Each structure stands twice: as C-alpha cells, then as structure tokens.
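Sequence of 2,4-dienoyl-CoA reductase [(3E)-enoyl-CoA-producing] (Hyphodiscus hymeniophilus).
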Amino acid sequence: MAIPRSEYLSEVWKDGIFSNKVVFCTGGAGSICSAQVRALVHLGANACIIGRNAEKTESMAANIATARAGSRVIGIGGLDVRKVEDLEEAAARCAKELGGIDFCIAGAAGNFLSPISGLSSNAFRTVIEIDTIGSFNTLKATLPYLIESAKKNPNNGTNPSTGGRIIFVSASFHFKGMALQAHVSAAKAGVDALSATAAIEYGPRGITSNIITPGPIMGTEGMARLGSRDAEQSGAAFKKVPLGRYGLVKEIADGTVYLFSDAGNFVNGEVLVIDGAEWRTPGGMGVAGQYPDYLLDNTFQRREEKKPKL
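Predicted 3D structure, token representation.
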C-alpha cells in the first residue's frame, strides 16, 4: 500500500526533478533512509537499496516502488557493509540493471546505549566497522559510477540535472561529547572527516560530498532503541529541543532532496544538521533520567551485549 506523499516529502518539490537518475543507498530498509529514497523515487529516480536482512530489504524496495508508477526499485539483502566486495557487487548490479549510479546515500549504522565501563572492545570495534568503514566501503564501491555520472551531468552552475552526489548519514554526538555514546561519537566523527576529504578530493571531478545529521526523529528505530517512552509521554524529552518537538522523517527526506537537487549544486563538504537545534542545548541524552544521575545510579550496568542493528 502506497504511503501518502505528506508523510515523506513536502509539497515544495517539483515532480520529475530526478527523472532518469539512480540512487544507491545502504541501510535503505531503515525508517530514515527508506524515506530519503522514497522521496527521490517519487520525484523521478530509480533506486537500489542495500540491507543486511534480505526479507526486510526486498519488502521495503517493493513498498518504496509504490511512490511512483513505473519506478524501478531493487532491494539487495544479505549484504554486509563491512565487506567492500559485497558493496562492489551490489553497485555493479545496480549500474547494470538501472543504468548507472548518480546519487549515493551511505546510511548503514549501528547503535545502542552503553557507558564506557560497559562497552567491550569488540562492541566498540563493531560500530566503527559498520558506521565508519561501512561508509568508506560504500564510497569506494560507488565512486567509479559517481565520477561517470558527474561527467555526463556536469555541475557547471546552469545544469538543472547534475549527477555525482553522495550523502553520508551521521550524528551530532561528537560535536560536544555525549554520555553513553562513545562508540557512535567516534564512528560518526570519522564519517564526517571522510565526507570532508571526499569533497576536497573529488570536487574537482564534479562530485559533491555532504553530511546529513538527523536529530531525534519521531517513529524511527533509533528513537525506539535510544529514546525514553516515559520522557516522550510526559513531554520532558521535547523540552530538550528548542522547537519543542521531535522531527519527522519527511524533514530528513526534504534535506536529501535539497542536497541532490539543482538547489544544492554549490553545497559541498557541508554538514546539514536537521535537529531543531537540539544539539546546541546543554545536558546529556535525556533518555534515562537527569544527567548525571543516570551515570551514578547504575542505570546502565553492563548488560548482555546485543549485536548492533544495521
């Protein structure tokens, strides 16, 4: 069943602006990345989404395809972003079946709450491998196609249909430090650095590389794992966001459309934070009580480690 446009895309965007474009997205079955891809497909693109869970990825691809009649959306599951050969094979299949890769979204990620004292070296390394190395592998696998797209669709300031764009999905935890998020803070700091370097190295080839940093987004897997239902129901969680609410997946999708569209032609090496200024507010995560109480009352005693989700 098709999802109403109002849930994943604002009305300001013109239909067809991404006609004949192809987007490749890791983590594409997730709530945020699927909304990003769905918006692009609605506006004319075809897509290939990558995920660890084959059934979930293929099902999401079929669902995204309902955003526009005649669209083509491939779901490739059972892939591990930590293995560059997996991504190279997926990128080759995407280019063969859909005609190339014009846009890339590196969105695969893993996260959970843990103090450093309860964080094993293996768990820390796993998040680095998924987020940072996975983003690097995604870039490496798609670069040849992005370079070719940029040649065919030059970013000269007058072309309304450019190609060769990559967005990395990051987080704001490392901006000022965040309790219980040492692993993700380190991983996403690396992603931000990778994007900035790609912008400098490949800008001369017409490629743009940017970061989208979502804040607390309503109804996502991330908030289900990291948020506090009690804090949300009481409204205490919303007080940490200057705008007084959580964001919507539509607002992340809108940022994605902006960066890939003609409007974002000269935006390169940027970090677009979409969080209602939440990261600028003082205090901790606010998901488990008042800072620093939740660090001192053993709220987060070491638990059985769970494998981070993609």
